[in-house]
Amino acid sequence: MAHPTLAVPPLAETYDLAVVGGGINGVGIAADAAGRGLSVFLCEKDDLASHTSSASSKLIHGGLRYLEHMEFRLVREALAEREVLLRKAAHLVRPLRFVLPHRPHLRPAWMIRLGLFLYDHIGGRRTLAGSHGLKFAADSPLREDIRRGFEYSDCWVDDARLVVLNAMAARERGAHIHTRTRCLGARRSKGLWHLHLERQDGSRVSLRARALVNAAGPWVESFLKEDLRQQSRYGIRLVQGSHLIVPAMYQGDQAYILQNEDRRIVFVIPYMQHFSMIGTTDRDYHGDPGQVRISSEETQYLLSVVNAHFRQQLQASDVIASFSGVRPLCDDESGDPSAVTRDYTLDLSGTAESGLLLSVFGGKLTTYRRLAESALALLAPAFPGMRPAWTGKAALPGGEKGQSAAELTRILLARHPWLAPDLAARWAASYGCRAWELLDQRNSELALGEHFGGHLHACEVDYLCQQEWAMSAEDILWRRSKLGLFLDADQVASLESYLASRRHPRQRAAR
């Protein structure tokens, strides 16, 4: 049974809050505000998580290296949020052990032990295993001269799916989420913001809001100056981070954190069972954030760091895919891009009588929920009837039963033994307990509908279009899933044809 396309709710005349930007900070603020009883509108000019929020290292972590920069508050807050997100979305956020090879000519062992001791204790760790030293055996994938190291815990997450789940949480509490809708500008008048919007089809609409949140990510400063005609009190520094995807470099589910000669670090993380993800770089970026691409210098940098640590040597021809993002960091005038603070800055201007404007600078994926709480605390005086904070204990969609992906996979296979194990595991990790909505009384693989490759079936495509704002093959293959790594050009073309037939039912009848 095919689902109808996600309906677009009619626009209200006036909202309490309008949010511009569908990355993690925008959807986090929208969800928090909607759950407090505010009427919320969010627009995103592209797809949800189209840019920075789908191009991270996909970690929920405190940031071990931030301790060196004395950012203790940021690390403490991020480590505490690690525990919160494990509870909110146990299917999506999973523990990951990190191996840190020790190279004596870089950081001394005592410094690493001290850093790991702080990392274990300043954030209120409850569920994750602590750190300890390691001696590498002869079968280690690391080079022979690397004999000792350390191990500690952090978490992994599918970043784009975390964004989508927060957008769903916002919608389920009454927020209106509009993708492919660009804010052309906004002006204050009679105590309200008047927003002018353009949809993908060229149609234009207007709405009003009592407060406006600028969560445009890499465009936060340009949106302020060019579209709102406002001055920015803070400068923004765009820092490019790039990652490589290569065939799996080792067996096991541990990740590696590598110390380079320049004192930066590079992660090697298991990815989609068959691959390793290598990243990230840090370099200033001055172009269009929507056109960021990995450079040959970045590729060579990442390969050289990995080759300095692993027995298996990589070359450019081993790279299967890559992705790059631009982190919009608040400019603290640091000379080193990797040392620029990852903390967030919230800039509030205006008044409740004239129309509030809140702009979001910087931030980390891990601390998006705390950022949203801070944003609502600043906006609270304008909304005296607003309900209190609530997101700390509320599950994200799919995480309502608190089950891990492994637990859900076992349940899915026990009740539906005809499901392919890889499919059951991916559905459990992506959709949590809402995977049952994809099954919808289906009792065979044939009933899942057309198969496009990579265990992607029509029933899942329909669900993504109906429930998760997916419109294009790119939305589905690279953000809602990472199945683009498994489909060939003909299979992608078949998916695009199917999506076109959903938009034009007469074409579908002819298939």
TrEMBL record:
InterPro entries: DAO_C, DAO_C_sf, FAD-dep_OxRdtase, FAD/NAD-bd_sf, G3P_DH_FAD-dep. It comes from the Bacteria. Its EC number is 1.1.5.3. Keywords: FAD, Flavoprotein, Oxidoreductase. It catalyses: a quinone + sn-glycerol 3-phosphate = dihydroxyacetone phosphate + a quinol. The keyword Flavoprotein applies. One of its GO terms (molecular function) is glycerol-3-phosphate dehydrogenase (quinone) activity. NCBIfam families: PRK12266.1, PRK13369.1. This is Glycerol-3-phosphate dehydrogenase. It comes from Pseudomonas mangrovi.
